[in-house]
Amino acid sequence: MTVTAVSSRRLLQDRRDRERIGEYRASGGYEIPRVAAADLMDEIAAAGLRGRGGAAFSTAVKWRSVATAAAPRHVVVLEGALLTAAAVAAGHVWIYVSDAGAARAMRTAIGGPALPTTKPPRPFEAGVRGQPTLVQNAETLAHVTLIARRGATWFRSVGTAMSPGTFLLTMAGDCAAPGLFEVELGTPLRTALAWEGGTRRGLEPGGFLFGGYFGGIIAPRAADLPLEYDVLRGEGVGLGCGAITVIGSDRCIVGVATAVLGFYARQSSAQCGVCVRGTQALHDTARQLHAGSPRGGEAQTLARHANSIRGRGACALPDGAANIVTSLLREFPAAVEAHLAHGSCNDACPSVFAVDEWGYAYTTDPQGNVAAADEPAAREAIAGCPEHAITET
To answer: Cis (ω within 30 of 0) for the bond into 33?
Structure first.
């Protein structure tokens, strides 16, 4: 994967060896700025920092919710733990590294199985050990350290008024050079895509998956939108964790949505019946539509199922599946109608879009072989896997 910093470099510093402690110390690592807790809280609010984990919620508001709760308090983070703990007067810091993404699953994983629980209470009310808990991801806390060192005015010197600062953009799919980039919030998606060499085979984008998969799927018009939280929300998608999958114009968009819905159905923790049955029903209906054997009414069935599961799970997984369906129906009505009328959208797809159990998108030919366009990246992944978990067959 290409790791590149574009324009304002803040998080992705240009160091030769990112994994050596000497290089990290030389760039200021482990130097904790001396700042009073109340002053840091005010500075974070003035900076307008929003969480980079998905919801883009105000970091200062989140901190204050925990700080005003009854002690003892906990902080669950990956970096920036000491500054954050001091700001909210937390007595315990947990460094949590796992593939369980829901905040309520994290709190149960510390001393138990990683399973989401119903809400309320939310983590800031009753989290780890039933005590007030702040959950923040690594990228957000990395910005906290920089704000503590350089201040809110410096942080706001890039980005936009409502979405200040930079964020880490992960671009994957049908782009020429998938990778991790640091970009200023407000950068047009087309500009960011150009930094990565454009699309594969020089084709125009056929659409985009936003926020990993949680943010929904959007038509090619998204290329001209700024990567800014509120603008994207107004268009019916979300930036989320900053992961965007480019979909080539030669792909069947209904097939892409079907693959993502299959991932959601497989990822259910089986805690909620509405999630288990609802996500599977969405996938089954979409698969029937994509396979070219519609019975009629699939669009209405998809819309009904999506509305019935939204907001009803212990975690947000059903909402993510619903977002894919509602955005597909809204953004690509012609493709859906073509499948209903003719069994296909008449797009000659050179390969099949698929999503593995970890959520990584890949393409294969109809026989299941890795598509020619993906072969160089696949071989690079095989060579770079330290545990030989990825092999060639």
So the answer is: no
